Amino acid sequence: MSIRFPPIAALRALEAAARHLSYTRAAEELFVTQSAISHQIKHAEELWNLKLFEKRGRHIILTEAGHALVPVIRDFLRRIAATVEDLSEKTEGPAALRVTLLQSFAFKWLVHRLGHFNQDYPDIDVWLSTTDNLVDFDAENADVGIRLGYGNWNNLHEEHLLTEYVFPVCSPLFLEAHPLPEAPAELLKLPLLRRSAVDICPRWRDWFRDAGVMVRRMPRGAKFPQTSLAVQAAIDHQGVALARSAHVLDDLNAGRLVRLFPEVLSRSSVSYFFVCVPGRENERQIAAFREWLLREAKKSQEEFDRMMAFDRVVVLPKPGEAPARPPPQPRQKAGGRARVARVSRSPQPSRKSPPASRSARAAQPPRPKSRGRVSRVS
User: How far is the C-alpha of 193 from the C-alpha of 234, rounded, in Å?
Assistant: First the structure.
């Protein structure tokens, strides 16, 4: 069956009349006469052999066919307008720099820092596009990307940006309202906020394994498609989230989150990389963004490493052995009784910095010469 389509003017008249439920107001919006609106709608009805409006006294209402068609027509008109606007911007000025990346990384890390780039390069417009899929730079409209993975992508120029640490986080209010866990296994008694997606990101089982806890079955609890949503739920006092350092650095510094069990050193097996088509990395816009991104990533990496290097080396017992008592910790009162604080907030700069050699040893602790496993504690 061949469908005949009315001109764009008729579709605009139909959409405006449906929005206002008035031919008169539609005519005023489109700067035509009321009879012109009526004529255009009648033409569409005759082409499609459908009744789109009914009169109810002095008013008009949409018919069932009108209710079905108007959303489609509205979406069609908006898409045309948006596409023409994008094409016009391309021809009127310099092309924007299009960056593709994960939504969670854009929301929790890049967007907060992008204002610095805009100040340094006011003539470069950055357009972000978020997706969980790997973009084909030959087929899709993207100039550069920030990818999470293992690296070594075929036919792409890549540069390492960030290696992350993984640790549990919760809000201070949640910590005050629940029994303070004194061993990693006790986290299983608290509401754990988990990711539902199956991907390469570290999961709770990975962190528990690094903590020396073998989990046969994870407890029930809320699941989220993205890490950023789980972290936001933790900020809202809903439970304990497994966070990656790039996602929560600003929240730790602001005191919205605290880090639990800092003695467990768990590095993410995947990293963030800058990627683009080979040969384009030295183009002016791309080179400016790449160099700025590398500087910002270096600052964050140094802060991640400093946050972890503030921990002290201790020997954790093997499974089945009695745990050694931790070094004396400051005691805080919560809920009317004193409890040992086994949490860590993001460290603030100290007047007395640890020697470089000790920081290097802290970043990669040596294998223990005695029983147990080496980890870190704040």
Answer: 8
Q: What are phi and psi of 55, to 5 degrees?
A: -90, 135
Say which amino acid occupies 240.
Answer: V
Of 226, 235, 254, 227, the residue nearest 345 (C-alpha): 254
d(CA 340, CA 182): 8
The pLDDT, as a whole number, for residue 340 is 37
Instruction: Assess contact for 163 and 268: CB atoms under 8 A.
Output: yes
Q: Which domains does the chain have, with CATH numbers?
A: 8-92 (1.10.10.10), 95-307 (3.40.190.290)
Confidence of residue 22 (pLDDT cuts 50, 70, 90): very high
Task: Report how far residue 131's alpha carbon sits from residue 170's, in angstroms, rounded to the nearest whole number.
Answer: 27
The Cα 41–Cα 46 span in angstroms is: 9
Q: Which residues pair with 373 in a beta bridge?
A: 316
Largest CA distance in the chain: 93
Q: What is the pLDDT of residue 338?
A: 34
Element (DSSP H or E) covering residue 25: helix 23-30
Cα 359 from chain centroid (whole Å): 30
Q: Which amino acid is at 376?
A: R
Tokens matching residue 96: 């924007």
Q: Is the pLDDT of residue 357 over 90?
A: no
Strand residue runs (E) in the chain: 53-56, 59-62, 97-101, 126-130, 144-149, 157-170, 192-195, 223-224, 240-244, 258-260, 267-276, 312-316, 331-334, 337-340, 343-344, 373-377
Give the separation between CA 272 and CA 105, rounded to whole angstroms: 9
- Give the span between the Cα atoms of 249 and 263, in whole angstroms: 18
Give CA–CA dist 296/250, Å, rounded: 13
Task: Tell me: pLDDT of 211 over 60.
Answer: yes
State the angle between helix axes of 64-92 and 8-20 in degrees (0 to 180), rounded to the nearest 10.
120
